[in-house]
Amino acid sequence: MKLRFAQKILEAVDKTFFAKGRPFHFIYPLFEAADTFFFTPNLKAQGKCHVRDCNDFKRMMMTVIYALIPCVVMGLYNVGYQANRAMEFAGAVQASGDWHAAVLNWIDGICPVLNVFGASPWNVVGNIIHGLVYFLPLYIVTMIVGIGWETLFAKINNHEINEGFFVTGIVFPLTCPPNIPLWQVVVAISFGTVIGKEIFGGTGRNFLNPALVARAFLFFAYAGSISGERVWTTNYIDGFTGATPLAVATNPDPAAGGVAGLASHGYDMLSCFIGTIPGSFGETSTIACLIGALFLIVVGVASWRVMLSMTVGGMGLATLLYFTGSDTNAAFTLGPFWHFVLGGFAFGMVFMATDPVSAASTHIGQYIYGLLIGALIIVIRVLNPAYPEGTMLAILFGNCCAPLIDWFVVQANVRRRERRLAAK
């Protein structure tokens, strides 16, 4: 009853101020975006449409956001945990250096019980708040800039703002390190939104994942801020480096092997699976990604075919290369399960490769698409050790191939039916 009353108020405001011919019609897309964020859009299917179920675009996007919650929580915790471990290593009691540190010192001063500088893994609340100080500005800037571009293009093209950017706006920050400068975030998300989506007509018409386009732009335009050992741990600890386990595993003594390199840095299978390792905000925890995958599969939003085939393609090739071996490349010594828990394999498999817009649509095409991405990740990681991570590039390549894969699958189905009819 209260919701219906609130909706009637919004409808009245719409007719009075934002409808065509009213004084604020020029910013109608912003009002409509706020309206549909809280309520179901008024536009409904008419006539004899083939509606699969009650899911609409808003419900699908919000379902993905719900599935990302474990990755967000674990990412916040891990950023705080890694920063506090770095301070413990450096012998620091409090943070010093940038505005993040000033905020953290202020929080610790007014509420010492939170212990935002406690290095214990059991200091869950303190670690999450520590990570939130780094993640929240990144998320806010991403949303403001991205929705700003969405609003501009909605006004230019005279269409409504949809909820598609809410997913991009949270996925992109989760692929970034905590130290990324905010001005680079502005440039990257602008590139990803405009070049990756809006110039093709907006959500539903893009053939590349916008969040990955933004991440790729960051990698190639500002490599120093997105790669290397110093970017994965908060930047107020001088002299401390935190190389990701994937970088460690592919650059040790080849005779010792990748697993030995990981062990020498204190990384084991359990820590990599849980996600208490240096890395991007949301990509380190395999178990958080798998929880999200289970939720998306149960509600029928993400394709289990893509996830399964990507896992088979990646783990199958990793197994083959593992038994092939190499005297000069330590990456060959990593078993398939290590590749699954290291880097962004799990996160990309669940939340990026399964994007229904940029992925293959046919069932057989989804198997081929997933196999291609999974195998290509291992090719980049193992055969090109200078670039230890390959998930981003592999998924973008898969996005480019998806329309062609679907075309061949459809043509094969047409030819098969023609032969069946001819036989009759």
- Mean pLDDT equals 82
End-to-end Cα distance, whole Å, is 60 Å
Tally of individual helices: 18
Largest sheet: none
Radius of gyration: 23 Å
Can you tell me the overall shape?
A: flat
> Strand pairing plus helix content: what structural class?
mainly alpha
Strand content: under 5%
**H and E order:** HHHHHHHHHHHHHHHHHH
Q: How does the SSE layout of this entry go?
A:
Elements: H1 2-18, H2 28-38, H3 57-90, H4 99-110, H5 124-157, H6 164-174, H7 182-194, H8 210-221, H9 223-226, H10 245-249, H11 258-264, H12 269-274, H13 286-299, H14 304-324, H15 336-341, H16 345-351, H17 363-383, H18 391-423
Helix pairs in contact: 3-5, 3-6, 3-13, 5-6, 5-7, 6-8, 7-8, 8-18, 13-16, 14-17, 17-18
Explain this structure to me?
By secondary structure, the chain is mainly alpha-helical. The chain has three domains: 1-39, no CATH class; 57-225, no CATH class; 243-423, no CATH class. It is built from 18 helices and no strands. Helix 13 runs parallel beside helix 16 (345-351). The longest helix is centred in the N-terminal third of the chain and has 34 residues, at 57-90. The radius of gyration is 23 Å and the shape is flat. It starts with a helix and ends with a helix.
Keyword list:
flat, 18 helices, mainly alpha, 424 residues, single chain, 3 domains
